[in-house]
Amino acid sequence: MKKAFRLLRDSVEIYLPVLSFAVMFMAFILQIFYRYVMNAPSTWAFEITRVAFVWSVLFAGIYTMRQREHLAFTLVYDRFPKRLQPYVRIASNGIVCIGFCIAFLPALRYVSFMGMMSTTILNIPMSVVYAPFLVFLIMVIAYTAIDIVQDVRILLGHAQADEEHAA
Fold first, then answer.
1. 24, exposed or middle or buried, with CB in 10 Å at 0-12, 13-18, 19+?
2. Contacts 24+ apart (CB under 8 A), 73-80
3. Segment 83-118, tens digit of pLDDT
4. Radius of gyration, CA atoms only, the chain
5. What is the DSSP letter of 38?
6. Are 110 and 62 in contact (CB under 8 A)?
7. What pLDDT score was predicted for residue 162?
8. Three-state DSSP class for residue 51
9. How far is CA 137 from the centre of its chain?
């Protein structure tokens, strides 16, 4: 079961962003070729580039949460004593988690509503284009909840704070 979960998680966080980036890059190159070599701009390549860009950014964003490689402004956080930093992380992760939980239902409604529309050239349902945002919300909620649990365990003395978690 763990192996299947790990494969699913890697597929969403690693393989899909790589694949969508490769598709985006190839469509972009084709777009340049059609525009400047064939002198006939390709609208379908532009549309694929836009959709693949959205998918690349959202799925790769999930991976940055997993690796804790996302952008963090720690200017104020670094000034707190080490013993208070878990409280600050719990508060900031709590705000993010609550905000994303509040945003999930409206985002779900919007993505469902966009299913009535489709892209201009390829007729891809817009719900397919924006569905990765729902996955992004769910995974950010999960990763911030995991971080909150880890910090609560640190405060209760059940775990040690590691340097990677402190940033």
1. buried
2. 74/167
3. 888 999 999 999 999 999 999 999 999 999 999 999
4. 20
5. S
6. no
7. 61
8. helix
9. 7
